[in-house]
Amino acid sequence: MENIVPLELMAAGEVGHVVQVDGSPEVVHRLAEMGLREQVRVMMVQPGRPCIVAVGDHRLSLRMDEKAEIFVALTMDA
Amino acid sequence: MPLTVAIIGNPNTGKSTLFNALTGLQVRVGNFPGVTVEKKIGRIKGTAQPIDLVDLPGTYSLSPRSLDEMVSVNVLLGRQTDVGKVDAVVCILDASNLERNFYLACQVLDLGLPTVIVLNMFDVASTRGVRIDIPALSKKLGVQVVATSAHRKEGLDALKAAIASAVPNGPGTRPHPFPETFYSECHQLASKLAGLCRSDAPSFLVERALLDVGGYLETEWLDDDNAAEQWRTALVEARTRLKDAGCRVPAIEAKARYAWAKQTLAEITTIPSARAETLSDRMDRVLTHRFAGLLIFAVLMVVVFQAIFSWAEPLMGWCEAGQSAASGFVASQLPPGTLRSLLTDGVVAGVGGVLVFLPQIGMLFLFIALLEDCGYLARAAFLMDKVMSKFGLNGKSFVPLMTSHACAIPGIMATRVIEDRRARLATILVAPLMSCSARLPVYTLFISLFVSDSPLLGLRGARQGLTLFAMYALGITAAALVAAVLRKTIFHSETPPFVMELPAYKWPSPWIVFSRVWDRMMAFVTRAGTLIFAAAIVVWAGSFFPGDHSQEFEKQRLIEAAEPIKSDLLLQEARTVEALDKLNQRISHAAWENATERDDILKLTASTQTELAKLKAKLKPFEDASDEVNHMRASLVEQSFLGWLGHLIEPIVKPLGWDWKIGVGTLLSFPARELVVTNLGIIYGLGQDVDESDQQLWSTIREAKWPDGRPVYGVPVALSIMVFFSLCAQCAATLMTIRRETNSWRWPLVTFSYMTSLAYLAALVTYQVAIRI
Ligand SMILES: Nc1nc2c(ncn2[C@@H]2O[C@H](COP(=O)(O)OP(=O)(O)O)[C@@H](O)[C@H]2O)c(=O)[nH]1
Ligand SMILES: [Mg+2]
Fold first, then answer.
1. Could you report how far apart the first and last alpha carbons of chain A are, in Å?
2. What CATH number has the domain bearing residue A43?
3. Which of the residues B273, B372, B568, B615 has an alpha carbon 20 to 30 A from that of B66?
4. Does residue B123 line the site of ligand 1, with CB under 6 A?
């Protein structure tokens, strides 16, 4: 079963893949250009506001607002 | 005819490194007309046919959201008249992260231009174990693919050869990533558009217009209001139809292009799956830590600022020496007169006064370039985002605001990294509130004059240090408040999500650092130099005319003619003083053998004293003459246009505790605030050779009186002046920079008005409160 959480709630070291990116079309578009889009694998490097996430080999620093949210399906270890 | 080749790529893929390696130093830097985008064109070295390389700003995509971003698209489509037709495009990708970079590659290939794909950072990809079948990729894309490691200059020859043969090779295979319904909508839109503006738009632009919701092509493309409205309606309808067909705009673009990327790269690359924690991650664990990271950051900032001030000091000394040498040279070549006054008081003093700050600016940029190139600056922005977001700014505003503590001009130029237009404007508008190095002379003068250096808690100079700190804090606080107000009012918008890439740490490359520092220093010299030059002449003229200076010049000529006599007398005086000192010492130690020797010594002392008195008397007329010239100058200034203006504004500045001299001195310092120190000197009739450590200016200022005999200056007035200068917009070069960067006169005017009002009110409150306690 998938455990879906907002990206901001991921704990350090948790891994998952993005299932949904909400927000204004512009924001979603921008995030996609920077590599944050549905299906990509992400890892929370440092939680907080802003947080640092690993997207592929890139590190992005990210602060979402009320209107934008990224949902991640956590990968269950073991 | 040289070929024109544009170069494009994601940020941090090594675009600048490649550009520099290919072109060497034959680069022309300018601006694209009407926007804030830098235009950089260089000739490629060592090719049979001349090739001009046009650098475009680093970007993650070709979707134009603003006029600035439209420039890249216009250049690529050959619609930018000052560049002309682009023959080919070089698209630089990061080989270690190919799939993501392929988003931009897909858009570039969609342009249908002859293309060369560069897989840069190939060394990094190889060490990570990424394997790429380049011939197969080249075949699939229908364009040449070249692997390079730009920082080691590897693969450059192959790249040059590929660029040279790109045009005959022709464009590659179009990716065609979207479903057919999308293309048929585009087709309809194209005919609609042809009807609206009676000209054919490239299909690429039509596709972009459909894809970029709220983008430039949707909102600002058509001038005619009616046509623009119809165009928007057509776009909205097309998007609705697409959505119903299961193809939502703009999500479809990421979906389609990444799908294309995945499919294209499927059998061509192998990427090792296990990804160990990198060294960068381990460093980040400390450097972005919420406490340790902030602490390291604070220490680093203190070190940087300390270094800027202490290391730049000797260099600034040389600049000042050069300036007075230049004045001296002019004075030795020209007799006193209007021309000489123009050259020394206007040109040399005005331009030199600004060039003095070049070492500090160079030093600051050296640090910024080092920190940026090693990847730390992005972390600093990350750390500061927490604080900045409280005031409606974001982490990216940090570097511009930090830079503004040396000088607002480079600070404002550095705001280009902020994509959100409103956040960028807010940052530009508050950047000049930071206490820049030009405020330092003003602070230094008034603090040393009026703030006691008696120990506080056992620390000597602590009061003075605290006052200086308070002035810096005032600037920062005002900036935070103004930014918060701006973001709530005229720049109101949702704080957009903050997304910023944190590049991996690495050793800074000396060449990149050097060229950045060099570029910025040259920009400062030419931009500030030309403006200050003009402004200095205007101010000089305002204080020089319409008075009759013939008497002053006559007197000055006499003084200079008698200069050899005067210096001879001064030399004698110095020798006599020295002799007298020695004698006095012997007397105080009773260093004699017998009474006769003692009498001799006493006699000698007496005669030396009379001789000194005589010398002093002989020197007196010279001093009187200098004083007289200074008085003449002072009264000529009073009768000049600016003097007239000064009396006109006196009622306005009086509530601040200022007399007309301070008022006009401040007004005169409009081109550059540090000029106020010089101006007060001129106005108080001391001649122009004044700096903040000048004893004579100190005492004259302390003793200045109102006509009714009350002293003009006191702690309240000094505070009110300092507060005013900390908040005012007395810097024409900054205002010009704002105009350049925002491409409108509106924002420099807004900046000037709000800062001047704020400075006036704050100075008023300061003075009125200070005289009551
Ligand atoms: N390892 C490696 N580093 C590179 C390569 N090309 C550039 N760099 C470094 O990557 C950093 C970013 O390069 P820069 O040219 O400023 O990238 P731009 O933002 O695309 O202009 C610089 O510090 C370069 O020294 C490369 O092929 N391999
Ligand atoms: Mg660059």
1. 13
2. 2.30.30.90
3. B372
4. yes
pLDDT at B133: 94
Sole residue written with tokens 């600022």: B305
pTM to 2 decimal places? 0.65
Instruction: Please give the CATH number for the structural domain made up of B3-169.
Output: 3.40.50.300
- Ligand 1 atom closest to the CA of B9, numbered from 1: 20
| Average confidence (pLDDT) over B729-743 | 84
- Judged against a pLDDT cut of 70, whether residue B594 lies above it is answered with yes
Largest CA distance in chain B: 123
With beta carbons less than 8 A apart as the criterion, state whether A37 and B254 touch.
yes
The values of phi and psi at residue A16, to 5°, are -170, -175
Which comes out higher in pLDDT, residue B69 or B412?
A: B412
Q: Is the pLDDT of residue B450 over 70?
A: yes
- Determine the straight-line distance between the first and last CA of chain B, rounded to whole angstroms: 76
Domain that holds residue A44: 3-74
E strand or H helix at B5, and its extent?
A: strand B3-9
ipTM attached to this prediction:
0.89
Instruction: Answer yes or no: do B385 and A36 touch at CB < 8 A.
Output: no
Identify the pLDDT of residue B143.
Answer: 95
**How do the domains of chain B map onto residue ranges?**
3-169, 180-246, 550-639
Q: Which two tokens stand for residue B433?
A: 């509130």
Q: How far is B389 from chain A (nearest CA, A)?
A: 10
Structure-block tokens of residue B239: 């998007």
For residue B369 and ligand 1, the question of a CB distance below 6 A is answered with no
- CB B107: neighbour CB atoms within 10 A? 27
pLDDT at B8: 93
Three-state SS for chain A is CCEEEEHHHCCCCCEEEEEEEECCHHHHHHHHHCCCCCCCEEEEEECCCCEEEEECCEEEEEECCCCCEEEEEECCCC
H helix or E strand, kind and range, residue B41? strand B38-43
Mutation probe of ligand 1 site: the residue of B10, B12, B15, B17 with most atoms within 8 A of C-beta: B17
The four Cα atoms B675, B677, B679, B681 give a dihedral, to 10 degrees, of -150
Q: Is B512 in the pocket of ligand 1 (CB under 6 A)?
A: yes
CB atoms within 10 A of CB B432: 27
Q: What are phi and psi of B215, to 5 degrees?
A: -80, 180
Residue B237 in this model has a pLDDT that exceeds 90: yes
| Segment B468-512, tens digit of pLDDT | 888 888 998 999 999 999 888 887 776 667 888 888 888 888 888
Please state the rounded mean pLDDT for residues B210-217. 82
Position B686 scores a pLDDT of: 47
The domain tally of chain A equals 1
